[in-house]
């Protein structure tokens, strides 16, 4: 019966905002400047029928008014609180003058409810209403956002919390939803145009002559070597604090969104990176964070001091502030050009010291995909004059009695070449290839098309899932790495993968082009094919110097990080610069699904493909 | 090879290395137990896994067709038959090498016994044994993953991948079944356009300046406009100079520009001169791009309507002194393949110019600058100029704005 009341309240709320009075005061309770935290029985919108209205509005950030696209008059959009096992109908009215859509990020649902125009449905036309309907088959922290144009950057995103059917195994005294995002006064289409015109437009942390004279950053020799390759080690983020204000629950650093706690309480923070472009390094100085959930699914508790949260990832952490004092929530942009800041405090109006921005990282050789060359001396180009070939390349000419494919399977041994050492040794052989050649050697990436989209190919990428992320190698405290994550529940499918494949993440910062395997979505003719219930090992190879959060719709995949059938299951995975990341996926959801980099402008530039999952009975049409 | 294979198949367990077992060449003695338990566990996913909707959701709005329902797989173990019927003419290992294609419609899989993995783990990266790495299936990790407790972590992602073939790619039109082709087709077109298929433009005035020199102050511009996608563009270039109270001379080029690599564009089109001299028209072919060490370079050949051939090379470099203060050295060389007395040009290098401009980027798009500029007519071109009573060049002080939109 409480459901009915909720619905009435909801409808009334929708009517009010529908009147066109989109006031900042309409912020949902959890996102107001001082939040008492979510009181569990009082979610913002819930029930089986939920009405959402997408419309233009104004929003206040740090005392400055900005144009935004919000839902039900708020940015972020209202928290949708659901319960595992229920059905939900979401009536979405598009009050814009352009097409819109909502994608339910991380939710397992029929493909035609996934909300990607042109893949799962036609989109929501202006001034029309579309009803999504699907069963809620999971629990955890998720989010939703537009998959149309660049609306997400304007504020079209919001959190989803799904309570488990029974008792929540993660117990806490209270919880706060922390939606991290980035906001610019510049229209997203202008941002994208500037990037096309000048890839480094927003980077105001480049290396300079003044810096060189002051002994900062790279040495003159290194600068020359990097210049020879036309690579900029300061290219850590495309869109930076030079235009972005980083938000917590829609509030700028000076607004100082505050979440309340009583000392000694177990406080659950549901952290969602709803940014368009920003990888956040998240920490709360003075508090250990115990990670209990990743991308909505429970993981074995890991205590950390800091964690990198890629775009579109969610993490739940437990903190236990014992003292009667305020703590600063810090979400530092990966390039350290700005931060999202909020406060955890026992009372409204309290604040703690805000730590200064740390020094921005510089890309190194590993970020260039030369992790396999461990004899390079710390960032110098010692290894660069090798003809860098991947370990995949068979070494040299083989004896006729032992052709490479036989040798590779261990059927025979080519004379004088140990099977294990051979690959690595061959890879390290000095060749005639120059520096430039080895940074764009297509022979190590046969999957990649030779297009202008491909600026570089990582010559010797290594798995970086055990690393904390760019700029967090030497911060002096425990930083979460993917290999720390371990599922609480045994994976539902523990078969060996039927096959394996590699997908290269390629880009060109000078032309601001991004793609998978060198082909933009606009150029690709066919989807990446899977059969229903195939189990496939996918290795993502990052051929760029920038991290890419790769998101597969409609599925969870298991990270191949050495935990066997207790692999953490995620919907989005950050592939570190010049590195690889591997997951196993069971393609159990028939339909077409989007697969893309969740950096909004990378996706817009073409870094997206469609994944098709077809029944096995031959009905593939 | 068949000899080798037979030997393998007859070999005892001691000779059955995990790698071979994984490829289905042999069976490891310990394989039986885990093999029996694995499908059972897989067939009963825990509730936290993807629970299947008990009932099909009602299609929202007015979905005409049956939505593709995500029904529970009959049995996940069934989907991966450990002992798939083997086409005798095409044993798995041959198929895996691409020597033949098995008859069976379902993809063949070299389903490895579960026990193979831990044994292989001892040798190297469990997820990437050397033979898989050698085949390019994976890249071995540099560092070993965190060790899992002995009691778990032995199946699932710990198992090596097989080498079943990928299915053929269908059309990505599954949503047509639900929403109809008429509704989906325009959305698909828009999807492709909005993910890499858009066009942009830029107007860049690299030089727009006043030149101060003894008694003959002048002006100079050099700019470019482009419109188009990432690969194909229309490019309009113009450069020229003049002195106040006298004529302006300059040129406009209209070019088709095509990206031919990550850094360079090839360009072809026409050039039209204007000014006091003969108004020549030229066919043009050239290149433009970013050279190693961050040099912006440009070069072109011009064939005039009189049959004369000329060439031009220019380049500049942006030296960032601070984040907003930039020093730009720039050079331009003009060449002629023949003497053209009517234009006052001698064969060879006709003139050279060099500039050094210091700009301050108030915005990236708007940067006032000051600098020095030197130009010199050379060889016979200089001789023609002297004969005509013109100067052969010299220094100027310049002030201008670099701007783009």
UniProtKB/TrEMBL annotation, chain A:
Keywords: Copper, Metal-binding, Oxidoreductase, Signal. Residues 59-165, 238-332, 497-616 form the Plastocyanin-like domain. GO terms for molecular function: copper ion binding; oxidoreductase activity. GO terms for cellular component: periplasmic space. Gene3D superfamilies: Cupredoxins - blue copper proteins (2.60.40.420). The keyword Electron transport does not apply. Pfam families: Cu-oxidase, Cu-oxidase_2, Cu-oxidase_3. The keyword Transferase does not apply. Residues 1-31 form the signal peptide. This is Copper-binding protein. It comes from Sphingomonas turrisvirgatae. The lineage of its organism: Bacteria, Pseudomonadati, Pseudomonadota, Alphaproteobacteria, Sphingomonadales.
């Amino acid at each position: 019966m409480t459901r009915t009341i909720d619905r009435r309240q909801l409808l009334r709320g929708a009517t009010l905002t529908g009147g066109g009075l989109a006031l900042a005061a309409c912020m949902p309770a959890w996102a107001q400047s001082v939040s008492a935290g979510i009181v569990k029985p009082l979610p913002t919108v819930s029930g089986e029928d939920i009405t959402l209205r997408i419309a233009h509005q104004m929003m206040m950030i740090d005392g400055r008014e900005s144009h935004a696209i919000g839902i039900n008059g708020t940015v972020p959009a209202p928290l949708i609180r659901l319960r595992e096992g229920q059905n939900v109908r979401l009536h979405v009215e598009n009050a814009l003058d352009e097409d819109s859509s909502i994608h339910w990020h991380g939710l397992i649902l029929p493909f035609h409810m996934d909300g990607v125009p042109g893949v799962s449905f036609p989109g929501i036309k202006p001034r029309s209403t579309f009803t999504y309907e699907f069963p809620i088959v999971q629990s955890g922290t998720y989010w939703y956002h537009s998959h149309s144009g660049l609306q997400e950057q304007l504020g079209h995103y919001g959190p989803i919390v799904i309570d488990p059917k029974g008792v929540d195994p993660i117990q806490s005294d209270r919880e706060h939803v922390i939606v991290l995002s980035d906001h610019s006064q510049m229209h997203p289409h202008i941002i994208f145009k500037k990037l096309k015109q000048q890839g480094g437009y927003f980077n105001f942390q480049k290396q300079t002559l003044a810096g060189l004279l002051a002994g900062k950053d790279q040495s003159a020799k290194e600068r020359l070597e990097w210049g020879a390759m036309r690579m900029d080690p300061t290219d850590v983020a495309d869109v930076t604090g030079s235009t972005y204000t980083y938000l917590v629950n829609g509030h700028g650093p000076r607004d100082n969104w505050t979440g309340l706690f009583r000392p000694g309480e177990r406080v659950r923070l549901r952290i969602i990176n709803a940014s368009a472009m920003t990888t956040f390094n998240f920490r709360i100085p003075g508090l250990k964070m115990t990670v209990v959930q990743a991308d909505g699914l429970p993981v074995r508790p890991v205590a950390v001091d800091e964690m990198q949260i890629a775009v579109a990832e969610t993490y739940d952490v437990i903190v236990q502030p014992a003292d009667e004092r305020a703590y600063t929530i810090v979400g530092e942009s990966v390039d350290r050009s700005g931060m999202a800041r909020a406060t955890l405090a026992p009372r409204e109006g309290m604040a703690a010291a805000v730590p200064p921005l740390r020094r921005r990282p510089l890309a190194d050789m590993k970020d260039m995909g030369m992790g396999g060359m461990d004899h390079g001396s710390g960032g110098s180009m010692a290894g660069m004059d090798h003809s860098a070939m991947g370990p995949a390349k068979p070494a040299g000419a083989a004896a006729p009695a032992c052709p490479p494919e036989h040798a590779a399977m261990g059927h025979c041994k080519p004379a004088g070449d140990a099977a294990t050492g051979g690959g690595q040794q061959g890879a390290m052989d000095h060749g005639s290839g120059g520096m430039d050649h080895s940074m764009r050697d297509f022979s190590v990436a046969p999957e990649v098309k030779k297009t202008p989209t491909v600026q570089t190919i990582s010559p010797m990428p290594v798995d970086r899932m055990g690393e904390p992320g760019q700029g967090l190698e030497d911060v002096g405290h425990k930083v979460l790495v993917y290999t720390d994550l371990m599922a609480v529940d045994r994976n539902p499918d523990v078969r060996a993968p039927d096959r394996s494949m590699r997908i290269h993440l390629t880009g060109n910062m000078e032309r601001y082009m991004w793609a998978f395997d060198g082909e933009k979505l606009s150029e690709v003719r066919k989807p990446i094919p899977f059969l229903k219930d195939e189990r496939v090992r996918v290795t993502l190879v990052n051929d760029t110097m920038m991290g890419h959060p790769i998101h597969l719709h409609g599925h969870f995949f298991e990270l191949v990080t050495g935990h066997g059938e207790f692999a953490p299951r995620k919907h989005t995975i950050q592939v570190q610069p010049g590195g690889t990341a591997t997951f196993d996926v069971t393609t159990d959801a028939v339909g077409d699904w989007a697969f893309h980099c969740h950096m909004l402008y990378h996706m817009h530039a073409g870094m997206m493909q469609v994944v098709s999952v077809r029944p096995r009975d031959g009905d593939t049409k | 090879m068949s000899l080798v294979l037979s030997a393998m198949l007859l070999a005892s367990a001691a000779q059955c290395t995990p790698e071979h077992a994984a490829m289905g060449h042999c069976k490891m003695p310990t394989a039986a137990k885990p093999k029996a338990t694995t499908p059972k566990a897989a067939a009963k996913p825990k509730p936290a896994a993807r629970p299947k909707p008990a009932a099909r959701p009602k299609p929202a709005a007015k979905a005409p067709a049956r939505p593709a329902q995500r029904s529970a797989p009959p049995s996940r173990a069934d989907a991966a038959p450990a002992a798939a019927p083997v086409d005798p003419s095409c044993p798995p290992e041959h198929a895996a090498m691409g020597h033949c294609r098995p008859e069976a419609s379902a993809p063949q899989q070299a389903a490895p016994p579960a026990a193979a993995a831990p044994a292989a783990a001892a040798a190297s990266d469990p997820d990437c044994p050397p033979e898989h790495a050698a085949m390019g299936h994976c890249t071995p990790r540099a560092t070993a993953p965190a060790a899992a407790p002995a009691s778990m972590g032995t199946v699932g992602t710990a198992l090596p991948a097989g080498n079943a073939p990928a299915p053929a790619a269908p059309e990505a039109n599954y949503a047509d079944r639900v929403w109809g082709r008429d509704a989906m087709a325009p959305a698909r077109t828009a999807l492709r356009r909005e993910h890499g298929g858009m066009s942009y433009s830029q107007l860049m005035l690299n030089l727009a300046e006043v030149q101060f020199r003894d008694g003959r102050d002048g002006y100079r511009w050099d700019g470019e406009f482009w419109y188009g996608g990432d690969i194909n563009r229309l490019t309009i270039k113009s450069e020229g100079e003049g002195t106040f109270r006298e004529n302006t001379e300059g040129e406009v080029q209209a070019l088709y520009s095509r990206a031919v690599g990550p850094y360079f564009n090839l360009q072809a089109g026409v050039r039209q001169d204007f000014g006091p001299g003969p108004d020549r028209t030229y066919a043009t072919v050239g290149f433009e791009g970013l050279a190693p060490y961050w040099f912006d370079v440009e070069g072109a050949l011009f064939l005039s309507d009189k049959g004369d051939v000329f060439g031009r090379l220019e380049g500049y470099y942006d030296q960032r002194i601070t984040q907003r203060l930039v020093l730009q050295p720039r050079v331009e060389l003009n060449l002629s393949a023949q003497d053209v007395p009517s234009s006052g040009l001698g064969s060879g290098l006709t003139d050279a110019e060099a500039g050094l401009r210091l700009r301050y980027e108030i915005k990236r798009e708007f940067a006032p600058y000051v600098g020095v500029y030197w130009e010199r007519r050379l060889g016979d071109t200089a001789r023609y100029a002297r004969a005509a009573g013109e100067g052969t060049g010299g220094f100027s002080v310049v002030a201008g704005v670099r701007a783009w939109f």
